[in-house]
Each structure stands twice: as structure tokens, then as C-alpha cells.
Amino acid sequence: MTVYAMQVAFRYEFDRPPGAGRQLFRILPAEIPGRQNLLHAEIRIEPDPAETAEFTDFQGIRVIEMVMPQGLTELEFVLEAEVERIAHQIGLDISTPLSVLPAEIAAYRGVDPAAPHHYLTPTARIPLMPKVAEYAARATQKTVTTREALEAFGRALHRDMAFDAEATDVNTPPAQAFAQRRGVCQDFAQIMVGGLRSLGIPAAYVGGYLRTLPPPGQPRLVGADATHAWVRGWCGTETGWVDYDPTNGCFALGDHIEIGFGRDYDDVAPVTGMLRLEGEQTGSHSVDIEEAPLQTHPGGWSPSVLDLPARPRQRREDSEDPIPETDPRI
């Protein structure tokens, strides 16, 4: 068991004061029984938002909704939290043989958020990619079990692609990132998701964080100063979902703190929103995570209630505006 103290900050500056806007933040660490516990969380928003609300989406991700007042010159949104990550080992490979996996997928009768059916088909972000499919087939041609294929494909991407924060942006198609063999965690993850789906393996995109400082004597993981992304593959009825981080070439275990998972980046983007804006804006975000001693907080942390600043949002009939995406990287 490891307790992490973390701070996640988003900061914006505006050349000219904007009109009102609405933002959705998917940044809270998830509650995962037996795996991850959110012990404490505080959120600071400066200046105070006009309205706030919180809801849980279909995938089970807790979403903070904020209405930005008019006339801002800058905005800061800071999450401070403590998360308990319960150590576990990857264990023996008892996953389903690839040849049997289609039958086990067909036998799954649920339509819950973790049902493998949701994660088999292409999406707008992760379409069919013939070159990636060919690469995935070559990388896994000698594998037998689903987990073996998952790891072989992830290791191949880690070997053949370079982490390069300047090579892509948030809207770069994964096929383009794969063609240039360069990108960030988002690119690695979406390429791997697409390749696994081409093999008939249900695959989800996972958003979260990495610890900033590794244990003594261990190398620092790539992507630890920002939100991170990795992959979740369904390895059959007995094994279920297994997480793999192709950016770092490892299974996602104790160093990874999960926010949530979805079909692609759009389902777990840390910030989305809309803003009436004239002129330029600049934005940045930072993540700092380190091990911390277990502490007792007065009042504790209630998973069902989040103490948000400002008044709750009053939903109106005309408030169903589309919420286009801003550009924090994973």
C-alpha cells in the first residue's frame, strides 16, 4: 500500500477579459475497490466560479462542472488530494487464448461500463488504421493468450516509438503519430487501443497520473509531470481487464493513479469546455505527485459529496450546449 500526495493545477491567462464559459474537469482520482482509495481532496478555484456542479458520467468518472464568470483576466483551478494505491502483482497468465476470446466476448451479456462490447469498434478518435493493424499482427504472431498479445504489442510500441512532446498535438490522428513513430502518452495509448481492437481484443483508453518521483534506485517514468494515459485490454472472463502502459513498456500497477477509462481520449479528456473569447489565451497545467505518510483529515473524505466553491448550478432548459475540447495533453 502506498499513499500519494498530489497537486494538479490548471492556469489560464487572457489577453482580453472573456465572456462567460463552461468547463468540465475529469481530474479526480477514481475509487476502485481493492485497488485505489481517494482519502482526501480539496479544490481551489480563483476567482470563484459563477456556478458549480458535480455528476458521474456513464463510465463512472466523477466530473466537476464549472461556469466561469465574465471579465476574467486569469483563472486557476487546483486539486490537492491524497490517494491510497494498493499494491498488486500482475500474477500468472491465465488469460483466454486468442482463438477462444470471440466466444467469451459473445457470452458476456451485460451492458455495464466495463462490458467488452463497448471497446471493440472504431471511434472518431481511433478509426480503422490498416498500417497499425498490420504492425499489431506482426508483433503478436507468436503469442497464444490474450494477455501475452497485449504485452507483446505494448512492448513493440515502446521499442519502436519515441516519446516526443513536440511531435504531435491533442488532435493529431493516431495513424499520423504511428507513421512518424513519435508522440506522447495519448498517441501511444490510442495507437495501442486501435491495434488491439484490430486483433479482436476489447481495449479501452485510461486516463490518470504517474508518481513524479520514483522509489530510490528506480528510473523516472516518462510523462510523470503531466496527466498520463495507458491502455486497458479485456483478457477474457477469468482474467478480465489488464492495464498496460506502452509509453513506459510496463504493466500499469502501483505507480499509476487512475481517473477513469473510456473508448478514446474524448471520454476521459481532463478538461473540456466552451468560452466566449476575443483575443488570445494561454494555458498550462502541472502535476506533482510524491509518496506521503497516511494522515487523518477532520471530517474525512466523502465519495458522494465534493465541497465545491461558489453556488451550485441551476440547470435550465436551454443549458444543453455542446462542450468543445480545450487542449491539455495526456
TrEMBL record:
Region: Disordered, residue numbers: 292-330
Domain of life according to the entry: Bacteria
Annotated ranges, domain Transglutaminase-like: 177-248
Record protein name field: Transglutaminase family protein
Cited SMART domains: TGc (SM00460)
A Pfam family assignment: Bact_transglu_N
Lineage: Bacteria, Pseudomonadati, Pseudomonadota, Alphaproteobacteria, Rhodobacterales
InterPro entries cross-referenced by the UniProt entry: Bac_transglu_N, Papain-like_cys_pep_sf, Transglutaminase-like
